[in-house]
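Suppose you are handed a protein chain with no further information: no name, no annotation, nothing but its sequence. What can you learn? This example shows the usual starting point.
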Amino acid sequence: MTQAGVSAPGRARIAEKTLRTDNWWRSPLITGSVLVFFIVYATVRIFMNKWYWSDQNHYLTPIYSPCVNESCVPGSSHLGHWFGSWPVFIPIALITFVVLAGFRGTCYYYRKAGYRSLFMAPAACAVPEPHKKYTGESKFPLVLLNLHRYFFYGAILFGLLNVWDGIQAFRGEDGGFGFGLGTVIIWVNLVMLWFYTLSCHACRHIVGGKLKHFSKHPLRYRYWNFVSKLNVNHGRYAMTSLITVIVTDAYIMAVSAGWFADLRFVN
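A reasonable first move is to predict its three-dimensional structure. Written in structure tokens, the prediction is:
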């Protein structure tokens, strides 16, 4: 059997796995830990089917937005009911999970982060990966990762829905204007979600791709410049938005469950 990779014929025979002396493993370990935690947390929350809406404060967690199932608790369905009640083993946030998980799961940054931290392909420069061959993303199921540009449109739509949820969070306990700590957390998360979405490589291509002369499209050129500046920090926005989503959901879950009351600033 012909060997490939670092064991291929003609490659230098080095006993050590790597000659690097720095803590090269620290970055993939941290990134992998965050990704695994988010995957486990999101999966558990999706199947809980409760503690996603605080009626008193009008807080809806982004993990369950939009809540368009008849099984949703009263007040949480801002857009009405699109579906009847589903069996208890089907998450009422199934549509949200499919679209947003599809967007993040096919994201170019998360693909790189996942390959390096979870599959060690490779974990770092000058650190050989354990796989004997490389097939890229040309075969099933990895070929499905090329659907990222289509999930992007869904992410834009859900981002707009999240903005509407954020506006609802400015309602006070008496129905008038008001906001609390939860409102602040929701809007911080919204900012990070939009930074992540707009800095996406697919967004950059949609805005300025396939143009031969930017001079003939000044507005698209301006948008392309804006997205390009955001794109430089796409990875940072990707990881930060993961954390803000978890914090936002955890806070709303705690308030909804009655573990503690929302800190109100106005009304």
